[in-house]
Amino acid sequence: MTPLLETRGLSKSFGGLVAVNAVSLCFNEREAHAIIGPNGAGKSTFVNLLTGHLPHSDGHVLLNGADIAGLAAHKVSRLGIGRSYQKTNVFPSFTVFENCRLAAQSRLPTSMRFFRPASAYAEVSERAAAALAAAGLSGRAGRIAGTMAYGEQRQLEIAMVLATEPRILVLDEPLAGMGREESEAMVALLKDLARRYTLILIEHDMDAVFAIAQVLSVMVNGTLLETGPVEQIRASRAVQDAYLGDGAEAY
Ligand SMILES: Nc1ncnc2c1ncn2[C@@H]1O[C@H](COP(=O)(O)OP(=O)(O)OP(=O)(O)O)[C@@H](O)[C@H]1O
Ligand SMILES: [Mg+2]
User: Fold this and answer.
1) pLDDT digits (tens, 9 = 90+) for 79-97
2) Which CATH superfamily is domain 1-80+167-251 in?
């Protein structure tokens, strides 16, 4: 079976630093796959290579078997790989709905954006409304984004990714900076999304990872330490020593 998304020997160097070192991983359709590892392990850099936000140094990124490594981020987005960022990325002075509509519009072909026919406008608005509903934010459509609680702003970011109609959701630390209640709401949302999307999730909160993911990959110093079903990785001695064992609370 061809994985939906696959990397082969994917690498990225920043000068002398090898941030991602020959990482080969498979992401299967409708699987929730978490990438964990200590700070600086190369997790964000790895997903930046997947989504075209950084040029790779070597290797391949295969989407349905076709190499997409080196494509610009907006092209990767139109191929159905949507991503959120480690830091918040909403337009704070725009309403929740406007933020979502802008995201939905980014998926339209350029010609459609230029002419703005009424039908395209309606379609974009519908897509934005559907994405808000899927992210549990229907009741917040008219709010100025910057005035919402932090947890809701992060929910909005998920809605903005959904508005681009992705098949694969790439989420970089969606729980970062959240309190306990906000985290619980986000975990519930991500579990729900995991039923309908292929999820690639970077997260330090191991309770959340175990609640959401079926597959776990561990990166350390740019390399892939281990990958496999969550239970296998949980029981792995190498992973225990490198990450989950003593001192894991620090992450
Ligand atoms: N644009 C860049 N230029 C130079 N070095 C970079 C750049 N981006 C990342 N790095 C370096 O690459 C390494 C991997 O960073 P990366 O952000 O991918 O780690 P991470 O696993 O996402 O860490 P964290 O858990 O803290 O988010 C780090 O040593 C980092 O300093
Ligand atoms: Mg990171």
Assistant:
1) 999 998 767 678 999 999 9
2) P-loop containing nucleotide triphosphate hydrolases (3.40.50.300)
Nearest CA to ligand 1 atom 26: 39
Could you tell me the residue ranges of all domains in the chain?
Answer: 1-80+167-251, 88-165
Reported residue count of the chain is 251
SS3 247: coil
110-164 pLDDT, tens per residue?
555 555 666 678 889 999 999 999 999 999 999 999 999 999 999 999 999 999 9
Task: Give the pocket of ligand 1 (CB within 6 Å).
Answer: 14, 17, 19, 37, 39-45, 86
CA of 24 to the centre of ligand 1 (A): 19
Rounded to whole angstroms, how far apart are CA atoms 99 and 88? 13
Alpha helices, H only, the chain: 43-50, 73-78, 96-105, 110-115, 118-134, 150-162, 180-194, 206-212, 230-235, 237-239
